[in-house]
Specification:
By secondary structure, the protein is α/β, with parallel strands linked by helices. The chain has helices spanning about 40-50, 65-70, 70-80, 85-95, 100-105, 165-175, 180-195, 210-230, 240-250, 255-275, and strands at about 5, 10-15, 20-25, 30-35, 55-60, 80-85, 125, 135-140, 150, 155-160, 200, 235, 280-285, 285-290. Among the domains are: about 5-135, Ribonuclease Z/Hydroxyacylglutathione hydrolase-like (Metallo-beta-lactamase, Chain A); about 230-290, Arc Repressor Mutant, subunit A, CATH 1.10.10. A seven-stranded mixed β-sheet has the order 1-2-3-4-5-6-7. It has a four-stranded mixed β-sheet with strand order 8-9-10-11, with no helix packed on it. Helix 1 packs across helix 3, helix 7 (about 180-195) runs antiparallel to helix 8 (about 210-230) and helix 8 (about 210-230) crosses helix 10. The longest helix has 21 residues, at about 210-230. The protein starts with a strand and ends with a strand. Bound molecules: zinc ion. Zinc ion (ZN) binds near residues 63, 65, 144, 145 and 162.
């Protein structure tokens, strides 16, 4: 963990739970793509700059999740670097309580206000075309979260953020976090068609051919949707449905998982309703979901 891996002439990543891109944009000057999950991860990333005599100019965030932004405060405090985030991700990064508030759907209890869901705050600016290094492209990847982006570097390396889970992660956790199922599936279809010298997913192995993993993630998404639709054979409330999902997929319930998987299941229910497969009903002062044909 935390070794620096070179993937092209000027492009590297630091192996970590959420990979950090390191790109040399001028002799002796680097920028990062994401920052590591916390201060201790960021310190290990910084040790590579010191070893190479690099100075850190800026951090480009893919999205606002704390496992990608948690190192920014430390790195900004020791280097004064700028940090940029796209669209609504900039708001979620600047106002760190938005994340647990979004997941909980109200003022979050202490169980949801810890460092895995709330990064320390830091100064973050909106990502604009002018803020990008010369020759870089952003790639819109909505679905996993509001305005997630990937980055293509001038040496044709694509950092693809969180739109793909590894096969092992999918087998173990089944429901990977997402916000908008329709947008997520559209993003994956586009990703499956993409070409690059190498792709760096944050949570899966680097690869020159992204299509097979994109297809596996598309299939896994449809499978979760099908399973949820099947669980709505009789009218069922959200917490009962979530309990059945955890039992069926053999997941371990915690407050955090209730919030993360729960939010994702809510998004799937909206998707299934929009597809005409399930519908909401009010019964005995409860909001229930049931298959639309019933
Ligand atoms: Zn994420």
């Amino acid at each position: 963990m935390y070794e620096l891996v070179q993937v092209a002439e000027h492009t590297y990543y630091v192996e970590s739970p959420a990979k950090v891109g390191v790109v040399e944009v001028a002799p002796g000057e680097v920028v990062l793509i994401d920052s590591g999950g916390d201060r201790s991860a960021a310190k290990k990333v910084r040790a590579h700059f010191d070893a190479h005599g690099w100075c850190l100019r800026a951090i480009y965030l893919t999205h606002s999740h704390a496992d990608h932004t948690g190192g920014c405060r430390y790195l900004q405090s020791v280097t004064g670097c700028a940090v940029y985030a796209p669209g609504a991700e900039q708001a979620f990064t600047a106002w760190t309580w938005l994340e647990p508030t979004y997941l909980y759907g109200g003022y979050p209890p202490a169980e949801l206000r810890h460092k895995f869901l709330v990064a320390q705050s830091f100064e973050v600016q909106p990502l604009t075309p002018e803020a990008l290094p010369e020759g870089w492209e952003t790639i819109d990847l909505p679905g996993h979260f509001f305005h997630m982006v990937g980055y293509r570097t001038p040496d044709d390396v694509v950092f693809i953020a969180d739109c793909l889970s590894s096969e092992a992660t999918l087998a173990k956790y089944r429901v990977s976090f997402l916000y908008d199922v329709t947008a997520y599936l559209q993003t994956l279809e586009r990703v499956a068609q993409m070409q690059a010298r190498i792709f760096v997913p944050a949570h899966a192995a680097v690869t020159g051919d992204i299509a097979p993993l994109a297809r596996i993630n598309i299939e896994a998404t449809h499978q979760v949707a099908d399973d949820l639709a099947a669980l709505c054979e009789q009218p069922i409330g959200f917490d009962d449905l979530l309990a059945r999902v955890f039992t069926r997929y053999d997941l371990r319930m915690t407050y955090e998982q209730h919030a993360l998987v729960g939010s994702t299941v809510r998004s799937y229910l909206s998707y299934l309703a929009a597809e005409g497969r399930i519908k909401p009903v009010i019964q005995d002062n409860r909001w229930l979901w049931v298959q639309a044909a019933r």
